Structure to design on (213 residues):
């Protein structure tokens, strides 16, 4: 019985995701689903990207978290349209939440939407939101074994960002091990190394997003 319920939930989500995707395509809106574990630096990195991109592209942000408006409050300081979704005990956002949020934000054609999903390395990868790109952020302090443990997340990624590179000298982290784990699952996703603290790699990463405009 639980399997039937889950199948029904996923089927409904897939239908709503296709509706979202059709809307985004018709309006030339690029949508990025940002996924990572808690503390990987999603919001900090998003603020850096907004600063690099907003002069060229109108940006809207959908913030997902179990509780509070902390991240949305931080994003609002960047002077972009933002909405907070609190999921309670829910471990991911779904397509229905995104469709409602886009309508409430009044997203305009030709813009970028960044969706900061709930911090989790399992559930978000299973729920299509209608996005064009799945962005997976990892951070050096988490360890280089994440691609070996969270297969669906790294298999689904369109781009992988390794954050907090400034901490590399202080932790036991092997970049070759990390990248090899990704390549065993995903041969195409580019891997960018960045540091929000020092700014290293951010210009190159921003160029990847600008190339999609």
């Amino acid at each position: 019985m639980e399997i039937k319920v889950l199948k029904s939930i996923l089927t409904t989500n897939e239908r709503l995701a296709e509706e979202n995707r059709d809307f985004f395509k018709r309006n030339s809106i690029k949508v990025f689903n940002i996924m990572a574990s808690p503390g990987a630096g999603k919001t900090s990195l998003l603020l850096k990207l907004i600063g690099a991109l907003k002069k060229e592209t109108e940006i809207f942000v959908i913030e997902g978290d179990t509780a509070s408006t902390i991240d949305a409050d931080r994003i609002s300081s960047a002077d972009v349209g933002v909405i907070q979704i609190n999921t309670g005990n829910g471990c991911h956002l779904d397509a229905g939440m995104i469709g409602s949020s886009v309508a409430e934000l009044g997203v305009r054609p030709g813009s970028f939407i960044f969706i900061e999903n709930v911090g989790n390395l399992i559930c978000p990868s299973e729920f299509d939101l209608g996005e064009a790109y799945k962005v997976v952020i990892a951070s050096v302090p988490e360890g280089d074994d994440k691609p070996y443990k969270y297969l669906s997340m790294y298999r689904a990624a369109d781009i992988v960002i390794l954050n907090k590179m400034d901490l590399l000298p202080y932790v036991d982290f092997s970049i070759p091990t990390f990248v090899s784990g990704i390549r065993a699952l995903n041969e195409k996703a580019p891997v960018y190394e960045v540091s929000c603290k020092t700014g290293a790699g951010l210009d190159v990463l921003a160029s990847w997003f600008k190339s999609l405009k």
